[in-house]
Amino acid sequence: MEWTGARYADGPTAEVRTRIAASPERVWELVSDVGLMPRLSTELRSVEWLDGTPRPAVGARFVGRSEHASFGAWETTSYVVECAAPRVFAWAVEDPERPSAVWRFSLAAADDGGTELTQWMRMGPGRSGLSYAIDRMPEKEQKIVYVRMREFEQNMAATLDAIKKLAEGGASGDEGAASREADA
């Protein structure tokens, strides 16, 4: 990630792509399984659907519990804002009208039968835990945003790599757990 000098209010974004030798339907099974994501993440600890929802659908909600060495532990409620199998799965964190972040997986069929998978996220416009760090150190806002966006980009790349391995049949989905143990 290049230095952009972005501020939180700019709604900075990060995007990572990979090509997977598996059908969009197979990749969709993985990216739309929110219960799988904690196994692939160094921050996300658990996820559960709310309101008895068994699977993603626009308007469905899930709670995620995360932990970060600099921010501690926190919990957020996310709202599915796009869900079109096997093309797009997106959710807004906290307030769907003014989210603290929006996350999206986009899938496109490749000519060879594989899948082009993209993970994208936008910070803001609603306040997040990062807002409190910026409030305490406003003169460092651009650096705080840059460091966090770089972390997001690195974590997204690791998530896509784990999804690729799972979709192509080469891994168990415990990569995130192994990373968490190594970070401890």
Describe the protein.
The chain is of the alpha+beta class. Helix content is 30%, strand content 32%. It is built from five helices and seven strands, in the order E-H-H-E-E-E-E-E-E-H-H-H. Strands 1-7-6-5-4-3-2 form a seven-stranded antiparallel β-sheet. A hairpin with a 3-residue loop joins strand 4 (72-84) and strand 5. Helix 1 (24-31) packs across helix 4 and helix 3 (129-136) packs antiparallel against helix 4. The radius of gyration is 16 Å and the shape is globular. The two termini are 25 Å apart.
Feature tags:
184 residues; alpha+beta; seven-stranded antiparallel β-sheet; 5 helices; disordered C terminus
What is the topology?
Layout (H helix, E strand, L loop, with lengths): L12 E8 L3 H8 L5 H4 L3 E6 L11 E8 L3 E13 L3 E6 L7 E9 L5 E9 L5 H8 L4 H27 L7 H9 L1
Antiparallel strand pairs: 1-7, 2-3, 3-4, 4-5, 5-6, 6-7
Helix pairs in contact: 1-4, 3-4
